[in-house]
Amino acid sequence: MGDHGIPTEHCYEEARVAETLKKGSRVTGAAREKLATELKRKYDSGASIRALADETGRSYGFVHRMLSESGVILRGRGGATRGKAKATA
Q: For residue 57, is it within any domain?
């Protein structure tokens, strides 16, 4: 286990993904398919798009597009909704 209870091998995996993807570099072919598979797996395991973007050094929009292209059904937004305030009696 590493810091904050995160398995050490997970930390190395994140570093490996970030190293192979230079920010702003074009991702094509097999590398794009591999990245899409990894993002899909992590998103399906509960990671947020923002967390995946931070982990890979890519933008939120890039990760969102990769997930959409992979056929992932995106989760709804979290947090409080902006519905009408509850009436107090």
A: yes
